[in-house]
Amino acid sequence: MIDDEMRDHYNLYLDEHINGVHNAFNWLYKNLSEIFSGYDADYIGSVIAKHDQSKYDDEEYFAYCEYFYGNNKDTKQTLEDFDYAWLHHQHNNPHHWQHWLLKEDDGYYKALEMPYEYVIEMICDWWSFSWKKNDLFEIFNWFDNNTEKILLHENTQKIVEDIMSKLRTKLEETNGNEE
Asked: What are the distances in angstroms from CA 10 to CA 19, 33, 56, 122, 163?
C-alpha cells in the first residue's frame, strides 16, 4: 500500500529528474549549439518538455513508487509489477534505447536507428543524474561502466559517442560550470 510519505518521495524524485533533463537540454542548447545544426531544436525541446510523462500513468506510477520507496520491494508481486511498469515505460518512451530493439525470430536482437530527437533526450536522461549530484562529469563514469550493456544501431552509436565527446570537451573547457 502506497502511503503519503512514499508518494511524496517519489513525486520529489520525479520533479528532480525531469528538471535535471530540462537543465541538461538547456545546457546542451546553450553550450553545444552545433549538435542542433540541421535539426529543429524547438521540436527537440518540445519532446524534452514531455519527458517521462508516462511515469504518472497508473501502469507505472504505483509500481515505481512501491519498488523504489516501499517497504516490500523484494516481494514477488512488487518485482513483477515493476517489471511490467518498466516494460510499459520502455514501450511508451522512445528515448530509451530498449525501445528500438527488435527481437528477431531467430532470438537475436537487432538495434534500429534512433531518431535524433530521442538520442538527445536519452543523453539528457542519462545526464540528469549528474545534475542531481552536482557533478556534471559523472555521466562519463556511468556511460563508461554501462556502454557494453547498451545495444545501439551503429549510426546511433556514432552520434552518441560524438555528442558525449563534445560534451566532455566543453565541460572541461568550462570546468564543469553549469552556465
From this structure: 14, 33, 10, 21, 31
